[in-house]
């Protein structure tokens, strides 16, 4: 009987030891997950600041109302943040300009329309139908993902309100804009732009916040 009790005690100790090890393992994994998320975001922000700094040091000095813009690749994304960030690091490109929206702390560069990295999987993207910011009465049209991935550069646009301001740095000049209109359209692969053709315009397009079926268009007019 005494030997049986000792055997049971040893078994109980082994079980408790194993449970402790398993619990400790999951605790460490949980801590690593919590820590790694902000670190990944921080690495992305540092890398982006480096690109913007290069843009500031080396600025590249390189018609009508748009009715339909191709947006078939514009979808909300939950792409793996680390994979997207690594792809961005491997890409060899430089910015020709920068979009800034102080209210939502957005600062992001953009490449030329001709660049292979003028693609929403890498950057805020200039629509092929867009005019550059220095075109009189032109419409500078930018598109980007919303969602929670590293490439979701327009994920905070839904916080904007009429009257909020944005600026675009391009070709050694800064163009300032004020938000004048916000509207939604169904995702059909194209989007109609409604703007005043007599005013220089900045148009931002992204998926509607918490809505899988619509996209939102933000119209800014030059101040």
End-to-end gap:
92 Å
CATH superfamily: Sortase
Low-confidence regions? 49-67
DSSP E strands, number: 10
CATH topology: Sortase, Chain: A
Structure write-up:
The protein contains two helices and ten strands. It has 223 residues and is α+β, with helices and mostly antiparallel strands. It has a single domain (59-222), classed as Sortase (Sortase, Chain: A, Beta Barrel). Strands 3-2-6-7-10-9-5-4 form an eight-stranded mixed sheet, covered by helices on one side. A hairpin with a 4-residue loop joins strand 2 and strand 3 (106-110). It is elongated and about 80 Å long. Residues 49-67 have low confidence and may be disordered.
Q: What characteristics describe this protein?
A:
Sortase, Chain: A; two-stranded antiparallel sheet; 2 helices
Short description:
With about 220 residues, this protein is an alpha+beta fold. It is about 30% helix and about 25% strand. Helix 1 packs parallel to helix 2.
